[in-house]
Amino acid sequence: MTTDPYARTLLHEAIATASPSGSEEAVVTALLALLEDRVDEAYRDEVGNLVVRRGEGPTRITMLGHVDTVPGDVPVLESDGALYGRGSVDAKGPLVASLAALTALPREALTGLELRVIGAVGEEAPGSIGARHVLRTQPQPDYLIINEPSGWDAVTLGYKGTYRTTIRATRPSHHAAGPDPTASDDLLDAIMRVRQTLQDAQAEERAAAGGTLRAFDALQGKVLQLRHAHDGLEERAEAVFGMRLPPTWPPDRVASLLDGVDWPSTVTREDGEERLPAVKTVADGTLQRAFRTAIRAQRGTPRRVVKTGTSDWNVVHEAWPVPTLAYGPGDAGLDHTPNEHLDLGAFDASIEVLKTVWQRLAEAPVDRQSPESS
User: Which domains are present in the chain?
Assistant: First the structure.
């Protein structure tokens, strides 16, 4: 397979420029400098998103990725055909694959297309500020491709939703040798009650499904943060409890479940802003077929996957009810790890896949299918 030196330069620059959530300006600046004169439009928007466009055709396709990463210094190096570095998989690699494909597409192939690649800020942080700004400022596309790692020969057809709630316990301060429980004891009691409630709900779902549930279809919960403090008069304990939601558990259903928990009298609960439903698309459609054809053209065997995490797809899917899936090179099992790295052969193959997909979509009538699965 041919290696595009410009694509590799884009990738190395993106990975070498640190951009944890809230500090994305440097990487956007670096990419804008490399994209100059190769696209029709490229700029940083009001919240810091990278926005790139080529073509003015009737079929609008948007690739929505993100430029921010989780914290952590993973030394940038190339070894044994892979590029190591924070964000190489999640998700600068997938984003740069779209940018490289966009710049490499022949001008004549753009006759029927308007292509946008957006590198959102804040995807790894609560609130998804970048994606929400995109909804307010960018036109709705005919097709949406989320730039997240699926593997170069696979597409992602769904992500679980997310729900976070803060559980707090408060008690008057007292001597540790006394008989009364602490606020932390009450908090742990409350957490166990939540866990039992989730387990009971899942037992019912599992029975209805014939005894088994895939991870994607299971309601999962875990403690994300724990804190304890006292000022000599009052002691406080707090936990952030996070849940991953399958399609059968929209946020309102989870809220009703939590409202039914028998909470200790010293405990209160406050739901956070992160209440995103799961997303899942159909297995077949114009967009899916275009990817299958393009992957086979690169001698791959197309695969379909679903993810137990979330992405900006969860944020935009209600406002943009268009055919959508996620695609990008990289092993998602390496997300957020100290060993994060991207296979460069897979990166090259994904660029060719995207170019073929876009050209096939330009030649096909726009698919007006419902993006939701049955």
Answer: 5-159+278-363 (3.40.630.10), 163-276 (3.30.70.360)
